[in-house]
Design brief:
mainly alpha
Length: 459
């Protein structure tokens, strides 16, 4: 790997870490946002979920734009908008503009992420170099969920909740000129072609409505009218999205991509697993700040082992994939993650700090290899021309899964407001059951596959 390659890899991983941290960094700021704007906790929670939904739902459009207009161009454009939205969000005078800017941040992230992953998978030679680059990418992605909580604790403790957004401004300002210097300007020339904006609107609105209904159902233990109406609207809009895609001249996701078995299975499993992971950091953050009455910094420090283990274990995944079948690495990671959740549920109910540490270590040890292996499996069977779409799909599964996981599992935990330990333990056990389904799906629906050295899409 040349010096130029190492510089480009560092920039891309730093940008990915910023996107992932920007979601979880808000977790520690939620109490401050609630108090500052005198709003309800449920409303403040949308500052986290609206970012994830807009990020995930618009990723397919971002992937098509990256493949048609140029990957570096979309990367730089997204960084610019992301920095501007962070500045406006950090200066918001009330909750409404804050939510709007979080949505705009998510849209900007949807431009950055697929361009980033397609740059990563096309910049390096196929084989060992790409696998090493993806290992660093996986570490940045998986650790961002947890390391953002630590950063949020520091910023909230010593500044205010506004700092968790304003810190993105100098980061984006430095990344833009570096991108123009370190990343290749090559790629497909600009093209004028349909962008399928109706499809993007349908899928975004449908996901938002579905998320609202899932949150209501989780909070109330059923599907009453308040949950049923948004659920029906969400399903209707997603059904309309399918019809729009069938008639679109340039659909957000080409049918040929979804027909690849590994792509469909891996993205489904990723939606389930990252949904649990996204909810986990928020569940533990709310529990430690509530029941244990820890401050933001102490809470972030307590969650640090989860991020460190996740990042550390991610680096050994390419060697595991080289020795074992990819589906076995994925299934084993999910199983270890589920075991960690069960240990955490016991720790929460019993108040054992040692079990809490062990549970976080197990969760990190399972999620780290899973996400890196999933990224490899979701992109290795597609040609270079579809790498932007591949990056969009894995990102969509991650973000939409995270938003749904938070909406349901956090609402499930809060059904027992006066029994925080019991509610959190219930949510953790439910998450373990979801992971059991994901592991079973991986073993039964995903075929063993090893890409040939130096090729993409080998059978």
């Amino acid at each position: 790997m040349t010096k130029a390659h190492r510089g480009a890899l560092a920039l891309l991983c730093a940008a990915q870490l910023m996107l992932m941290v920007d979601f979880s960094v808000v977790n520690l700021a939620l109490p401050g946002i609630t108090a500052s704007f005198r709003t309800s906790a449920d409303t403040a929670l949308w500052t986290a979920t609206v970012y994830a939904v807009c990020f995930g739902a618009l990723l397919p459009l971002g992937g098509r734009l990256a493949d048609s207009l140029g990957r570096r161009r979309m990367f730089v454009t997204g960084l610019t908008v992301f920095g501007a939205a962070s500045l406006a969000g950090g200066l918001s005078p009330c909750i409404a503009p804050l939510l709007a800017m979080r949505a705009l941040q998510g849209g900007a992230a949807a431009l950055i992420a697929p361009a980033l992953l397609s740059l990563l998978t096309t910049l390096f030679p196929p084989g060992a170099a790409t696998h090493r680059a993806l290992a660093w990418f996986g570490a940045a992605t998986s650790s961002g969920f947890s390391l953002g909580v630590v950063a949020g604790g520091l910023l909230t403790e010593f500044a205010s909740w506004r700092a968790v957004l304003l810190v993105n401004v100098p980061a984006a300002a430095m990344a833009v000129p570096l991108a123009r210097r370190l990343l290749p300007a090559g790629g497909p020339p600009p093209e004028r072609r349909p962008r399928d904006l109706p499809g993007a609107v349908c899928v975004t609105a449908g996901c938002l409505a579905l998320l609202l209904g899932i949150g209501e159902a989780g909070a109330r233990g059923g599907v009453p009218l308040r949950a049923g109406l948004p659920l029906c609207l969400g399903l209707l809009l997603l059904g309309l999205f399918v019809l729009v895609e069938r008639r679109a001249a340039a659909p957000l996701v080409p049918p040929r991509v979804l027909q690849v078995r590994s792509v469909a299975v891996v993205n489904t499993v990723t939606l389930l697993v990252t949904g649990v992971m996204g909810a986990l950091t928020l569940l533990l953050s709310l529990f430690l700040q509530g029941a244990d009455r820890l401050g933001p910094l102490a809470t972030g420090t307590a969650l640090l082992p989860l991020g460190l283990v996740t990042a550390g274990v991610s680096h050994i995944t390419p060697r595991l994939v080289a020795v074992l079948a990819p589906r076995r690495v994925l299934a084993a990671g999910v199983a270890v993650f589920a075991l960690g959740l069960l240990v955490l549920a016991a720790a929460v109910r019993g108040g054992h700090d040692g079990l809490l540490l062990l549970g976080m270590a197990l969760c990190g040890a399972g999620f780290g290899p899973f996400f890196t292996a999933a990224t490899m499996a979701a992109t290795q069977d597609l040609p270079a021309a579809d790498q932007g779409v591949a990056g969009a799909l894995i990102g969509t599964a991650t973000q939409i899964g995270t938003a749904i996981g938070i909406a349901f599992l956090v609402s499930l935990a809060e059904r027992r407001p006066h029994e925080a330990a019991s509610g959190t333990a219930l949510a953790l056990r439910t998450g373990a059951a979801v992971l059991a389904v994901a592991a079973l799906l991986t073993l039964t629906a995903l075929h063993d596959h090893r890409s040939r050295h130096g090729t993409r899409g080998a059978p």
